[in-house]
Specification:
globular; binds 2-acetamido-2-deoxy-beta-D-glucopyranose; alpha+beta; nine-stranded antiparallel sheet; Jelly Rolls; 4 helices; seven-stranded antiparallel sheet; 338 residues
Length: 338
C-alpha cells in the first residue's frame, strides 16, 4: 500500500518534470521590508536577516500573517512557498489578495489555500475567486500537487488584470478566469492587498474537520521567499483610482512574461487540470443547480466529476457535500482562535 503510494508519487513527479514550462523571465523580487508588513501574530512573523524571505509560524498561542504595505489595482502577486512538513492536519496556509478589511459587505478576493494533512497524506491546494461580496457563489477548485510542497519551495503566483485572472504554480498556469459581461461584479474590480497567513483551520480544513491541529508537532513553519509584487499602487484612502491613473502600470502588467499564455503554457494547463484537479465548482450541480457563466463545461470533464464536482476515484469513499462556510483567516484579536 505504502509502496504503491510512493511509486505513484514518483510517477507523478516525473510527469511534472516533463510538463514543466519555461520559467518566467524577469520577475522582480523585493525584500520583505520593502513591500510587506506583519499583520497578526507578529512574534511568529520572522523575516530573514537580509529580508529576502520570511517565515510564518503557527504555534499553540497564535498563527501569523503579513500583508502588502499597499493596495494594488490589478497586479502580479507571487512568492515561493515551502509548507510545513510532517503532521499538519488542520493547518492552513493561505496566499491571497483581498480588500475585505475595507469592503466588508462587497469585498473581492483571489485565493491560494493550502490544506494540511495527516502524516503521509498529501497537502491539498484550492483556488477561489470572489467579486463584490459573492461569498454565496464560491468558485472553488481543488487540486493535488504533483510534488511534495514541504520538501522545497515552489512558486505560486496570481495575475489579476482588467480582463483576466491566472493562477500559476511554478510558472505554469493552472487556472484562468476571463472577465465577461455575464460575470458582472463577481469579477474582482476593486484594489486589493496581498496577504499571506498560517492559521488553525481545525474545524474544516482536513477531512471536513475530522482531524484537528495537533500542537505536539508545533511550531508549524511555512517559508516565503522570492516575493514579488507588481501593479498599480493605490492609496487606501483613495481606494478606487481615477480612470487612466493606472494605465502605465496596467500596460506593464500585460507586457510581463507572466501575462503571456503561450500555446505551450495553455497545453500544460490543460494537462495539469486533467491530471490533478479533484474538485470544480463548475460541475457541482448539487451545490449550484445553475451553471456559472464563466464555466466552460468540457464534456469529458463532466463525465469524470459527475454531479458533485468531486473527482470520482474508483471505489474511494464517497464524499459528502460540504457547505462552504464564511470563515475568516484572520482572527479578530490576534491569538484568539475560537
Ligand atoms: C525587467 O523588468 C524591469 C522592470 O519592470 C525593466 O525595467 C527591464 O527592462 C526588464 N528587463 C527585461 C529584459 O525585460
Ligand atoms: C457591488 O455590490 C453593491 C451592493 O453591495 C452594488 O451596489 C454594486 O452595484 C455592485 N457592483 C457591481 C459592479 O456589480
Amino acid at each position: 500500500m505504502m509502496g504503491a503510494r510512493l511509486l505513484g508519487a514518483a510517477v507523478v513527479a516525473l510527469c511534472w518534470a516533463a510538463q514543466a514550462v519555461a520559467a518566467f523571465r524577469n520577475v522582480t523580487t523585493r525584500r520583505f521590508e520593502d513591500g510587506y508588513t506583519p499583520l497578526f501574530g507578529e512574534r511568529n512573523v520572522l523575516p530573514s536577516g537580509d529580508s529576502r524571505s520570511v517565515r510564518l509560524l503557527l504555534d499553540q498561542y497564535t498563527g501569523s500573517g503579513f500583508i502588502s504595505s499597499d493596495l494594488y489595482n490589478h497586479g502580479f502577486f507571487s512568492a515561493k512557498i515551502k509548507l510545513p512538513s510532517d503532521y499538519t492536519a488542520g493547518v492552513v496556509v493561505a496566499f491571497y489578495t483581498s480588500n475585505g478589511d475595507i469592503f466588508e459587505k462587497n469585498h473581492d478576493e483571489l485565493d491560494f489555500e493550502f490544506l494540511g494533512n495527516v502524516r503521509g497524506r498529501e497537502w491539498k491546494v484550492q483556488t477561489n475567486v470572489y467579486g463584490n461580496g459573492s461569498t454565496s457563489r464560491g468558485r472553488e477548485e481543488r487540486y493535488l500537487l504533483p510534488f511534495d510542497p514541504t520538501a522545497e519551495a515552489h512558486r505560486y503566483s496570481i495575475l489579476w488584470t482588467e480582463e483576466t485572472i491566472i493562477f500559476y504554480i511554478d510558472d505554469m498556469p493552472i487556472r484562468e478566469v476571463r472577465r465577461s459581461a455575464a460575470m458582472g461584479g463577481d469579477y474582482p474590480s476593486k484594489p486589493m492587498s496581498l496577504y499571506a497567513t498560517i492559521w488553525d483551520g481545525s474545524n474544516w480544513a482536513t477531512a471536513g474537520g475530522r482531524y484537528k491541529v495537533n500542537y505536539k508537532y508545533a511550531p508549524f513553519v511555512s517559508e516565503f521567499s522570492e516575493l514579488a509584487l507588481q501593479g498599480c499602487r493605490v492609496d487606501p484612502i483613495e481606494q478606487v483610482p481615477a480612470a487612466g491613473r493606472c494605465a502605465e502600470e496596467e500596460a506593464q502588467l500585460l507586457a510581463g512574461d507572466f501575462a503571456a499564455v503561450t500555446p505551450e503554457r495553455r497545453a500544460a494547463m490543460k494537462n495539469f487540470r486533467e491530471k490533478f484537479m479533484t474538485y470544480s465548482f463548475c460541475y457541482d450541480s448539487l451545490r449550484y443547480p445553475a451553471t456559472f457563466p464563466d464555466c466552460d463545461i468540457v464534456s469529458s470533464e463532466q463525465e469524470r466529476f459527475k454531479e458533485s464536482g468531486h473527482l470520482k476515484f474508483g471505489g474511494a469513499g464517497r464524499r459528502r457535500h460540504r457547505r462552504t462556510k464564511r470563515r475568516s483567516r484572520i482572527p479578530a484579536v490576534a491569538g484568539a482562535w475560537e
